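Final report, results section. Input specification for complex C-07:
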Amino acid sequence: MEATATILCENAVYGNLGAIGEHGWSVWLKTPRGEYLFDTGQGKGLLNNAAFFQKDFAAARGVLISHHHSDHTGGLLDAMKAMRGGPSGGGVPVHAHPDLFKDSFSTKGDKPRHIGVPHRRSLLEAAGADFRLETGWEEIEEGIYMTGEVPRRTSYEIGDLELKHYGDGRKLVVDPIRDDQTVVIDTEEGLFVVLGCSHAGVINILTYIAEKTGKSRFHTVIGGTHLGPVEEDQVSRSIEALHEFDIGRIGVSHCTGQKTAARMAAEFGERFFFCSVGVEVEI
Ligand SMILES: [Fe+2]
Ligand SMILES: [Fe+2]
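Structure output:
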């Protein structure tokens, strides 16, 4: 069976007249073990684009969520409605980290803006969500994994200092976004990796995946690297470190930012591509 990843939500759309771009990320995964939705965008484009690219949400075996931010979880309610209780009608498994419903804020504007899941858990459950909240590495189906929390080891992957939460106190402090996780599909050609936003640091993530799977060949890595809104030192050191991995193709998107994406295109040449709305990648 042909296995593919189709980008449903991303910041940009080229061609595909009728599809919608938005600041967000969502990928439809068609695997030999069934179809899954990874992230849901911010909720403006998901169903429009799913219809445009003819993805049958009622056939989905489940939803995988990378982290709590609204540009990845805003479409969850629409997804639940379209999935109509899942293939068996008994609920749609939604795999995520226990921090899914935490409050967090972006301090990029004049005042803090809430960027957690925009819908209540009870509402999502009433619409059919069956939350499976796990902290650690998890096998969803044979050969399909979610990393869970990723150990932060590099000194230079500092992350985005404008993303905050209340932590244990009353003051907004930098959010480590410990819930950030990534999907890994094991294939005969190597590992297929779908990043969410890489808040854990793309180098930390790939290192951890290699460690957990015992494999070092990444045939394709796609998704958000969050190298847009970070310091130059992190960008250059991360790009340098990416060269140490055996990566066949790298397709960045979303929070990578256009400037960093252009830089990576120059660095990785033929191995580079951009994952905008409608791009279909072979798994
Ligand atoms: Fe994020
Ligand atoms: Fe994001």
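The chain has a mean pLDDT of 96. Residues 92 and 129 are 5 Å apart (CA to CA). This concludes the modelling results for the funded period.
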